[in-house]
Amino acid sequence: MTVSCVVFKFVVPSYFFPALAKAVMQIGPELSRTVVVPTKLDTKIPQFACPSDVEVFLLPPTSTLDGCILGDLPFFTSVLSGRVGSGSHCLYSSNDDFKQAVSFKEMEDVASLEEKLGRPLSKQERNNLVYINNVPLINSLLEKEHRSVTRKLSDVKQELSTLDEAKLKEKGRAFHDMFLTKLSLLLKGTVVAPPDKFGETLSDERVNGGAFVGADGVQFPHKLIPNAGMRLYGGAQYHRAMAEFHFVVGGIKCTPITREEIVNACGVEDIHDETNYSSGNSVFLMDSFMITILNLLL
Questions:
Q1: Measured CA distances, 269 to 115, 199, 211, 263, 287 (Å)
Q2: What angle do helix axes 95-117 and 51-58 make, rounded to 10 degrees?
């Protein structure tokens, strides 16, 4: 099997970034193989209102980047408009012309940022701005990750080549036991599973699984349901669902009871021929309850 290292470069406007970030997170949730390269730097600079805005943009907090991207910091670049070629619609006649324009643009970006900051850029800040100078660093990081992935793939191939029926059954039983154990812990309560990945807010729950509605067909407001904004799973999510169900049931108006229904609910017992009012009450209540509740659940 041939292993190749593929690097995807996305150049997107800022309003498309959330969708791109979602796609990247699906490929690598930990961002351990991701190089962040914010483009459109030249259009971003005029939006900075004060020096602190520039500081945060150049050196974002670790919590913002999760501290696990390749290089630990983003690289910045300005993407020039215009194509390279000889056609009338082309702005640059050769690649060298385009590279020269990029260099001039980087100089303009540095000057604009220093003016916004009110001070010269540090060496580290300059290095992050000059994208072309960081290409060797990015390549070395990607090569390191490539070696790690290749080693893991080799281990998997080795494991697959030595598998037999007995080992597969044993691994299947181990997975089965682990799954049941984790499921039990999930229902009893745990903090191991990350809520942002497995939890659901009440809004998410209603979108994915439906919602309870009152007799008037209207959903109950979120503020009436406990922990509506929290991302819950397992037993905690069950408790919230039952609380919502109790609100719905509590808002149901009791159906009117007629004497005719009461008399029909009181039948003949097999022990004696007297009327068993206790049994009649139970029969009437259960039948009415099932009709009312099934209308809510179906």
A1: 96, 52, 42, 14, 18
A2: 130
According to the model, what pLDDT value does residue 8 have?
43
Which distant-in-sequence residues (6+ apart) come within 8 Å of 61 by Cβ? none
Give the CA distances from residue 47 to residues 44, 116, 126, 155, in Å, rounded to whole numbers and listed in that order: 5, 10, 20, 49
Taking the chain, what is the end-to-end CA distance rounded to the nearest angstrom? 52
Instruction: Give the Cα separation of 111 and 46 in Å (integer).
Output: 12
Phi then psi for residue 90, to 5 deg, are: -90, 140
76-115, pLDDT tens digit by residue?
666 676 777 777 777 778 878 877 887 787 788 778 878 8
CA-nearest of 43, 59, 188 to 123 is 59
- 46 is written with which tokens? 């005029």
Residue pLDDT, tens place only, 159-173: 888 778 888 888 889
Element of type H or E holding 150: helix 131-161
pLDDT of 176: 92
Contact 250, 225 (CB under 8 A): no
Nearest of 254, 204, 255 to residue 229 by alpha carbon: 204
Q: What is the mean predicted confidence (pLDDT) over 250-275? A: 74
Confidence at residue 38, expressed as pLDDT on a 0 to 100 scale: 62
CA separation for the pair 177, 14 (Å, rounded): 46
Q: How far is the CA of 282 from the CAs of 73, 264, 279, 296, 297, in angstroms?
A: 70, 12, 5, 21, 22
In a 3-state reduction of DSSP, which class is residue 83?
strand
Residue 264 tokens read as 């029909």
The mean pLDDT value for 45-71 works out to 67
The domain limits of the chain are: 14-151, 195-250, 259-297
pTM of the model: 0.38
For the chain, give the mean pLDDT. 73
DSSP 8-state symbol, 275: B
